[in-house]
Amino acid sequence: MITMAVLLLSSCGISVGEPILTIQSPDGDVIDCLNTMDQPSLKNPLLKNHIFQETPSDHVKREDDGFGLQVWHSEGITCPRGTISIRRFDKNISHTKYDPLVPNAADRATKGHEYAIAEIKWQPVYGTKKASLSVWSPIVEFPADFSLAQIWLVSGQYEENNLNTIEAGWQVYPNRYGDHQPQLFTYWTADAYLNTGCYSTQCVGFVHVSNTIALEAAITRTSTYGGDQFAITLQLWKDVFTVNWWMGMGENIEPIGYWPAEIFTSLSDHATTVQWGREVYRNTSGRNTTLQMGSGKYPNKGFRQAAYFCNIRIAKENRTLLPIEDFVIGGDSYTIRKSHSKVCGTHFYYGGPGPLRSESVRGDYLSIVYLLLLSFYFLV
Q1: Domain boundaries along the sequence of the chain
Q2: Active-site residue, 54 included
Q3: pTM score, two decimals?
Q4: Per-residue model confidence (pLDDT) at position 304
Q5: Active-site residue identified among 279, 317, 325, 359
Q6: 279 has which bridge partners?
Q7: Count of other CB atoms within 10 angstroms of residue 128
Q8: Model pLDDT, residue 285
Q9: Distance CA 176, CA 178 (A)
Q10: DSSP H or E segment with residue 365
């Protein structure tokens, strides 16, 4: 019943109130400022008796509110207090990053996807904090592809169709930004991506509370190869009193919003796995395209050249956030390497150019094939 209710709402759409203010971003985005209580997620029938939570329990409001982080802030305008900032999205664009036509849950979630991931399995896990993700602008040529860096909180199994995930990070998706500008995003599912699962506020589920941070809006700054590095700090955690799952960002952890516990099954109480890392999706049409991960450089290049995750912490049984001492790593066409420093603790670098590295490399391959054919012709 949970999945069908959410599917019904995400498929048909829900009417919302008129924006209090509409802001035109220089990059073409339109940001609507809606009354907080008019947002679609609060109309989910699963939340009929839900009590809206304006801020996390025991949260201390600070001045670090994320203003200036995104491109739409450049005019010095933000949404008024009492409203939330929502990026207006194209209804013709798919709201899922997984293929709904593949019947097997595990295949649907992984077909065409490649990863470079650090992972810890523990039970129970109540959150992850101070994971600082360096932000880059990887080259993603094909409009249906994407390249992202994120945190996963996971519980449940594909085989039982009860896999639940909460995901948050930054993503480059040419359907939205042809100039490869990264955007902040969230994603979630409550049934192994069968009927639930969508980005940010594009379907009911995530309850937005911030008037300064708009999900899926472009991030202003990125890291420079060999130069200045820019990172965002994300936190996902379980509220000890309301049991909702919160997302915050920045060194002072400015709240962006939360996922109500009611929309989940296996993740309603705790997670069993935490993952940090990188995911790319390569189209299965057979086209040869460049799809970089992170900076496009391999992790052995190190700081200022390769992408990284730094200051990684998790919350276990007593919900105290602790630095991690070790983790399991894995990757496929892209690589990942552990490291340790006084500043970042146990951390990792990741990335690479992918199987097809550039137009020039592809050109070299074609030249070699051409020469072999030409040699064969004259020999015959």
Answers
A1: 2-379
A2: no
A3: 0.84
A4: 94
A5: 279
A6: 115, 148
A7: 26
A8: 59
A9: 7
A10: helix 359-379
